[in-house]
Amino acid sequence: MKFIEPAFDAGGELWPSLPDVPQPDISVLEDTIARQSAELHQRLTEVVQLYNVQQQHANELQTACDEIDRLNQIISALQEAAAQFKTDGAAAQDRIVLLESEKAALRAQLDRALHDSSELTQRLLAMEAAFNSREANIASALDQVEFLNKELASVSAERFKLVADVQSEKRRQRNTLNQQTSVLEDKIKTTETLASTQEMQIKHLEAVRGKLDKRIQALEALLKSEHEVAEIKIKRLTEELERNRSSHSAILLPP
Predict the structure, then answer these.
(1) Count of domains in the chain?
(2) CA 54-56-57 angle, 5° bins
(3) Measured CA distances, 156 to 110, 112, 123 (Å)
(4) Among 91, 138, 194, 228, which residue's Cβ finds the most Cβ atoms within 10 Å?
(5) What is the rounded CA–CA span in Å between residue 145 and residue 133?
(6) What is the tens place of the pLDDT at every residue in 43-65?
């Protein structure tokens, strides 16, 4: 039998001597221990890799949640802008209706002015006919005729001036109304275009959000599955490690 030198621990206590194990058995045990150590190291590496993958998935999930929050804020802002554009369009439409009412009132005033001018012309014609019918009294009525002629000229001048002023005012009001109507119509078209663009952007963002929700669900399912697999592997590695420790302790204990 080969003599085994007693071993001491750090406190100077005598370690129990190892059992007399044949050299081939020791080599087999060393190989087994080395192989199990390598396998344990590999399993630990797999656990670390699984933990890293789990952490990466958690980071991706957080990034997706942040992106969804940002998209929700953008959608709220776009909806508020679309509502404001619709309100501005309604106000512009009300302004157009008011301008149309003012235009109708101006037309009524013009018609009344033309009617008054027609009545004045008829009165002047009647006066002229009355004076023409009095040809027998021309000598005595020359002064009155001259006066009436001057009055007629003054009234005609006033009439022409009134008609010219009315026509000028009518043209000015028509040009102003046409310009305002054109500007308001352009604003309405611009508002409708912007509202349509905003609605398209909202639909696109909602579609993107739906895709992100599906991706998040898939990532969560994958993360849960990988987490369960990792727990199973860790449990199995722990049980194998405990069994190896028990086997190693049983081999090293003296018979």
Answers:
(1) 1
(2) 65
(3) 18, 18, 12
(4) 194
(5) 12
(6) 889 989 988 988 988 898 888 88
